[in-house]
């Protein structure tokens, strides 16, 4: 029997390695920009077309490469970062594996132009599928200019797994933001399909944060700084009142390298305990500087996971540093034992002798039960009517009809409790039964609706019920693209960051299909001319759009929903009535009728129960009656 084990060809091995290193265009961009940073560049320009599917171009002014290095950099495990195994425990550069360039060249058409400052001519290398097609000298600018064309052109199955351009562009922006945050001293720019998305000059970390996320972040940041013998922590955290329900604005950098670490994230969340709303996530950009010998970054090819020598101590330091900063800048509540508690400092600066006590005057002859208006010195005719007559020159003949009280149907109160219970312990009952509804509903704590049925009673979560109604209604409008719109009296302008702007472009047609009237207005700006008529009034259009985008991103990461279903769910969540909203009997009856007309009335849009049924048998068992 012949031998069956053999070495794979280099091009096959490189394609296999590319599956771990280059997962999408954003992965290739990360590797290329990190190489430019390691080359000492202080100006880096990124150009993409079709969200990186057609073209990725990175131009830097780094040290450049010689003719030999330009050819050798595309070989597997060829790197300038390390020389021996011991160097793995003293890594300060972004890359060190020597796999990225070989992996990219195996799945794309690559053109490299590079020149060192001391050289007169540079080198051009053209590679397709790990095979060198051409190499020749050429006069090029100092530094490196690398073009990656038609990513995954020789792996069509992998290319088909790529998402839409808007989704891939958001991944590119995420990677670009991480690199920009970790290197504020470097000029960075991002161009997509001829449009400049980012133009970030060399600046401080706080300025870089504001330029990336918006001017409103300038007042949200709290500085963090702690230097110990184990690690040094510095950066910024967000104020708790600006925490969001979605993840994505949490950044940890270890030795300037972005990492994902749930353990350290928990340390930050622990520092915010009791000062932030539940299920919200604060903004933070934290840099950890640690001796490379104390960590191991050779865990995964993407280099976003790190093993620590003493993770418990790092956890405690980060938690204490964040908590201390929040307390230092008066974010956390604190007790001031030096506060003056006496009442010597009055509001007024007048002396006590000059203060005159207020007096109360009344008409002793006033009798509210006396129908004779002549006996009352204060009547409608003597007050409002006479004043009106002085202004208009006369009293209208039918002026008293303005004060006629329309007789309403007496309300019917059906108490749920009897006996000597405290009034504060009684559930709130809606007392009005109008002619439009034959059933009487009760509202408990302005959150739940109680309705009697033949076998007992049902309890309905009013917010979940309204969300279900709106969700199915919005889904139908999206299918028909016929959402009714209500024109805004004053159009509002909303400014988005580049990441949200890409999402808005992708959703704009569907959002307008729901009844919104939104149009683009310059770079990253939109004008809101109208909102869906079903939303009614009293909504802040800008906050509504921001919450819809936030919930959309949260649903996308947690539930992996289709675009239209996700959008309908996000709008329904923000447009539905909230707990604490008081409803009259007519509103409750209408809500219940619409709920039972839905396709899935029993299940909320997030899979939780909407209706809970209590039978008479269950009630009897509660009272010990079998």
Question: What's the topology here?
Answer:
Elements lengths: L9 H12 L3 H14 L4 E7 L5 E6 L6 H6 L27 H7 L2 E7 L6 E7 L2 E8 L4 E7 L6 H5 L4 H18 L4 E6 L2 E6 L4 H9 L7 E7 L3 E8 L11 E5 L2 E3 L2 H10 L12 E7 L4 E2 L10 E2 L2 H18 L52 H12 L49 E3 L3 E6 L2 E6 H19 L4 E11 L2 H16 L3 E4 L4 E8 L8 H18 L4 H13 L9 H12 L14 E5 H7 L4
Parallel strand pairs: 1-7, 11-13
Antiparallel strand pairs: 1-2, 2-6, 3-4, 3-6, 4-5, 7-8, 9-10, 10-13, 11-12, 14-15, 16-17, 17-18, 18-22, 19-21, 20-21
Bin the strand percentage. Answer: 15-25%
Radius of gyration: 34 Å
The helix content, as a percent range, equals 25-40%
| Structural class category | alpha+beta
- Straight-line distance between termini: 80 Å
Query: What composes the largest sheet?
Result: 8 strands, mixed
Nearest-integer average pLDDT: 81
> Judging from the principal axes of the Cα atoms, what is the shape?
elongated
Total count of helical runs of at least 4 residues: 16
The number of strands is: 22
What low-confidence regions span 5 or more consecutive residues with pLDDT below 50?
334-348, 374-395, 405-437
Strand order of the largest sheet: 5-4-3-6-2-1-7-8
Domain DNA mismatch repair protein S5: 209-327
Domain MutL C-terminal dimerisation: 440-583
Organism: Sphingobacterium ginsenosidimutans
Pfam families: DNA_mis_repair (PF01119), HATPase_c_3 (PF13589), MutL_C (PF08676)
Account of the protein in words:
- Helix 8 (262-271) packs parallel to helix 9, helix 11 packs across helix 14 (563-575) and helix 13 (541-558) packs across helix 14.
- The protein is of the alpha+beta class and 626 residues long.
- The longest helix is centred in the C-terminal third of the chain and has 19 residues, at 462-480.
- The protein is built from 16 helices and 22 strands.
- A hairpin with a 5-residue loop joins strand 1 and strand 2 (55-60).
- It has an eight-stranded mixed β-sheet. A five-stranded mixed β-sheet has the order 9-10-13-11-12. The chain has a four-stranded antiparallel β-sheet with strand order 16-17-18-22.
- It starts with 9 loop residues before the first helix and ends with a helix.
- It is elongated, with a radius of gyration of 34 Å.
- Mean pLDDT is 81; it is low at 334-348, 374-395 and 405-437.
């Amino acid at each position: 029997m012949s031998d069956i084990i053999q070495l794979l060809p280099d091009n096959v091995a490189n394609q296999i390695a590319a599956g771990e290193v280059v997962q999408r265009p954003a992965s290739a961009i990360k590797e290329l920009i990190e190489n430019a940073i390691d080359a000492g560049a202080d100006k880096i320009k990124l150009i993409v077309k079709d969200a990186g599917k057609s073209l990725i171009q990175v131009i830097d002014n780094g040290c450049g490469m010689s003719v030999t290095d330009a050819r050798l950099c595309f070989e597997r495990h060829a790197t300038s970062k390390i020389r021996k195994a011991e160097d793995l425990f003293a890594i300060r550069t972004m890359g060190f594996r020597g796999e990225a360039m070989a992996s990219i060249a195996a799945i794309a058409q690559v053109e490299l132009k590079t020149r060192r400052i001391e050289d007169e001519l540079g080198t051009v290398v053209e590679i397709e599928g790990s095979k060198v097609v051409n190499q020749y000298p050429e006069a090029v600018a100092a530094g490196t200019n690398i073009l990656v064309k038609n990513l995954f052109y020789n792996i069509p199955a992998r290319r088909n797994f790529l998402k839409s351009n808007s989704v891939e562009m958001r991944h590119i922006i995420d990677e670009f933001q991480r690199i920009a945050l970790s290197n504020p001293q470097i000029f960075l720019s991002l161009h997509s399909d001829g449009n400049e998305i980012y133009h970030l000059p060399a600046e401080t970390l706080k300025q870089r944060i504001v330029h990336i996320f918006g001017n409103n972040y300038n007042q949200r940041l709290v500085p963090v700084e702690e230097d110990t013998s184990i690690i040094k922590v510095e950066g910024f955290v967000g104020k708790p009142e600006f925490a969001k329900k979605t993840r994505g604005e949490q950044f940890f950098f270890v030795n300037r390298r972005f990492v994902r670490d749930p353990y350290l994230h928990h340390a930050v969340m622990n520092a915010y305990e009791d000062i932030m709303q539940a299920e919200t996530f604060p903004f933070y950009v934290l840099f950890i500087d640690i001796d490379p010998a104390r960590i191991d970054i050779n865990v995964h090819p993407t280099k976003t996971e790190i093993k620590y020598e003493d993770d418990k101590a790092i956890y405690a330091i980060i938690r204490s540093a964040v908590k201390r900063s929040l307390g230092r800048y008066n974010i956390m509540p604190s007790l001031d034992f030096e506060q003056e508690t006496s009442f010597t400092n009055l509001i007024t600066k007048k002396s006590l002798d000059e203060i005159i006590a207020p007096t109360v005057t009344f008409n002793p002859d006033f009798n509210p039960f006396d129908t004779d208006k002549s006996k009352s010195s204060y009547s409608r005719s003597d007050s409002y009517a006479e004043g009106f007559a002085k202004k208009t020159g006369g009293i209208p003949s039918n002026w008293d009809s303005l004060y006629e009280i329309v007789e309403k149907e007496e309300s019917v109160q059906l108490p749920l409790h009897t006996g000597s219970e405290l009034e504060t312990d009684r559930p709130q009952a809606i007392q009005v039964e109008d002619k439009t509804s034959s059933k009487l509903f009760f509202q408990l704590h302005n959150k739940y609706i109680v309705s009697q049925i033949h076998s007992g009673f049902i309890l309905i979560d009013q917010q979940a019920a309204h969300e279900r109604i709106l969700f199915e209604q919005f889904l139908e409008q999206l299918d028909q693209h016929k959402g009714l719109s209500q024109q805004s009296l004053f159009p509002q302008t909303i400014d988005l960051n580049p990441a949200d702007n890409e999402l808005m472009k992708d959703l704009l047609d569907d959002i307008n299909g729901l009844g919104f009237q939104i149009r683009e207005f310059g770079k990253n700006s939109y004008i809101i001319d109208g909102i869906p008529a079903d939303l009614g009034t009293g909504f802040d259009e800008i906050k509504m759009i921001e919450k819809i985008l936030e919930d959309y991103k949260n649903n996308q990461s947690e539930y992996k929903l289709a675009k239209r279903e996700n959008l309908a769910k996000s709008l329904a969540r923000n447009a539905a009535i909230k707990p604490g909203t008081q409803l009259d009997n007519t509103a409750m009856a209408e809500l219940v009728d619409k709920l039972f007309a839905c396709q899935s009335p029993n299940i909320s849009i997030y899979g939780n129960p909407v209706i809970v049924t209590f039978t008479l048998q269950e009630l009897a068992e509660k009272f010990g009656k079998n």
